[in-house]
From TrEMBL:
<keyword id="KW-0732">Signal</keyword>
<keyword id="KW-0456">Lyase</keyword>
<dbReference type="Pfam" id="PF14099">
    <property type="entry name" value="Polysacc_lyase"/>
</dbReference>
<feature type="signal peptide">
    <location>
        <begin position="1"/>
        <end position="23"/>
    </location>
</feature>
<protein>
    <submittedName>
        <fullName>Polysaccharide lyase</fullName>
    </submittedName>
</protein>
<dbReference type="InterPro" id="IPR025975">
    <property type="entry name" value="Polysacc_lyase"/>
</dbReference>
<dbReference type="GO" id="GO:0016829">
    <property type="term" value="F:lyase activity"/>
</dbReference>
Length: 327
């Protein structure tokens, strides 16, 4: 075989490997599961990312989807640490399988609604005092802004704005006694700002659980969303329990949406709202989670009956009114 043939074959092999490597570090998610983020997600620590790290599953898999037909299963087993060329989880006492937003990152002046539903099985153990993060808003050039984490107390947020590596405050969102074994619905309304006009409003099952006003992103930076299972300081669990490894953990996600309008992310909430209106005899349409003319007409009929002003848009105020009416 002459030299030119060998060089051509090697170049072709290199091209295939690079292409496969790039394809292997990226994935798409069905719109039934996620929307509003762009159509490509990155696998965090793609070198060492296991095939079981995340999977798209359907109604044949327990616990079944929160809404629609499909959902996501994340799994981390002992030793699931990888690297991305610039960071090595294995050398830094960490294990993870996450997906990371890759397009249309958040920047100063953006205002968005975010939704996701999360299910932690009852047989998935807590590994405290190891930190287990189930979602985060990270920055391109600075540290994390907002962590969604799990401890013995339950599901909590860790506000680290402006990303200098220090916690500003934490707040428990879901107590541990109510956390595992059921779908939990999270909504976040955010104005991204490097000034004082930013905010976070975090809802659990349509009840406001945390509110923060002020800077939400470092000046000149952009933020991106990551979700899955990220375990940091594994040695803390191993040392406390005198074991060689931390146990496997599984978490399910569904309805991971981003939009400037609440009605375009909260399909779960709108479906529940339609069900409540149907129970009161005001709504006779399909329970589809879509905010349209029929839902609006039924909503305003109910609001008028209860003595509340009519609305044009779907908002958290509707859930507050419903809670008040049921008391």
């Amino acid at each position: 075989m002459n030299r030119e043939v060998v060089l051509t074959a090697l170049a072709l092999l290199f091209s295939i490997c690079v292409t496969q490597g790039m394809a292997g570090s990226r994935t798409s998610l069905p719109k039934d599961v996620a929307s509003g983020w762009g159509n490509v997600w990155l696998k965090s620590m793609e070198n060492g990312y296991k095939p079981y790290g995340f999977k798209i599953v359907d109604s044949q898999t327990a616990p079944g989807p929160r809404f629609g037909k499909k959902f996501i299963k994340f799994e981390v087993r002992p030793g699931d640490c990888g690297n991305n060329g610039g960071w090595d989880d294995c050398a830094n006492d960490r294990e993870r399988h996450e997906l990371s937003q890759n397009k249309a990152l958040q920047k100063h002046g953006d205002e968005y609604w975010y939704s996701w539903s999360i299910f932690v099985p009852t047989d998935t153990p807590s590994i405290s005092p190891t930190k287990v993060h189930l979602g985060q808003f990270q920055q391109k050039n600075n540290n994390v802004l907002l962590l969604m984490s799990w401890s013995l107390a339950g599901y909590y947020i860790d506000n680290q704005v402006p990303g200098n590596g220090y916690t500003r405050e934490t707040r428990n969102i879901i107590p541990q006694r109510n956390y595992q074994g059921k779908w939990q619905d999270i909504l976040i309304h955010t104005r991204w700002s490097h000034s004082s006009d930013g905010f976070f409003k975090i809802y659990h099952n349509h009840k406001l659980k945390y509110e923060y006003a002020g800077q939400t992103i470092a000046k000149g930076d952009r933020s991106f969303f990551k979700f899955g299972i990220y375990r940091s300081f594994i040695s803390r669990y191993k040392n406390r329990n005198e074991v060689s490894e931390a146990p496997k953990q599984i978490v399910y996600y569904d309805e991971v949406h981003r939009n400037r309008s609440l009605s375009k992310v909260d399909y779960v909430g709108i479906a529940k709202w339609q069900e409540k209106l149907a129970e009161t005899g005001h709504y006779t349409g399909k329970i589809d989670g879509l905010w349209g003319g029929g839902s609006l007409k039924a909503t305003n009929a109910w609001l008028t009956e209860q003595g509340y002003p009519n609305v044009r848009e779907y908002s958290p105020d509707l859930w507050r009114h419903m809670i008040e009416a049921e008391q």
